[in-house]
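HUMAN:
Could you generate one sequence with tokenized structure?
ASSISTANT:
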Amino acid sequence: MEEMYLTIINHIHDGVYYVDRDRKILFWNKAAERITGYSVEEIVGVRCPETHLDHIDEEGRPMCEIGCPLFAAIGDGEERQAHVLVRHKEGYRIPILVNVYPVKKDGEIVGALDIFTLESPTVYEDTVVEHLSGIAMHDPITGLPNRRYLESFLTYKYDEYKRFGRLFAVLFGDIDNFRNFNNNFGHELGDQVLRNIAASIQKNMRRDDLVGRWGGEEFVGIYSVSSPDDIHIIGNKFWKLIQSTEVSHEEEFLNVSMSVGITTIQQEDTVDSILSRADRLMYQAKKAGKDQVMFG
């Protein structure tokens, strides 16, 4: 009977795939191969966020990080429908309609089924889509995720914590005496300070973390942690990373420092409260003399 079901699924025109609770893909039908260009061998056994499918919504936001319907269905047991742009193996984007269904065994949710249909023959050049996505979700000076992206990712991590208990930490950093760079050396050098800090951050960012420019001279980091004690390693590493950042001006190098606050999600937290606590810790670091980290 199982073989008959698999034969039927492999002969329908809709793409079908199944993921477990960790979003590892365990089944990928023939239509999924045809629509995306990716074979069973390339997809099965890989976690959905780690494939090259790179699902984004119609506004260019990365769904695996801020709005995954599979993740949501596994969390609350509700069916989902979404309009998605997926990257074909050949590099262009194709629009698909996805319908997601939670899968239960003995009353427990064990995974989710995604049935997707090609919405139209239209394809989109990936470079154009990525450019528009970059404008919407990234800061133009540093190239880092912007506040909109950070807020969406923070909400996603909070939902993940509430559903699955996965801990995360929030870091809030503010460049010390940033106004002096602008007033004494000009705004172009101030922008270069931001770009140099961004370059250091980008080279040291882990896959499951996100660090971006909150606004002005403020930066926010959102980190996956296994224990509240992890914030000491993360906070000190980030602080030292900024300390080692320099900006050249004429024939001298100017040092940069940052006051940092970092905290771990707590049971009674909301999205706003954990962000506010990290912000308060940063201001404590400022009041204590700047160029240091406060933990909470």
In short: The chain has a mean pLDDT of 88. The first strand starts at residue 15 and ends at 20. Residues 147-164 form the longest helix (18 residues). Residues 141 and 185 are 18 Å apart (CA to CA).
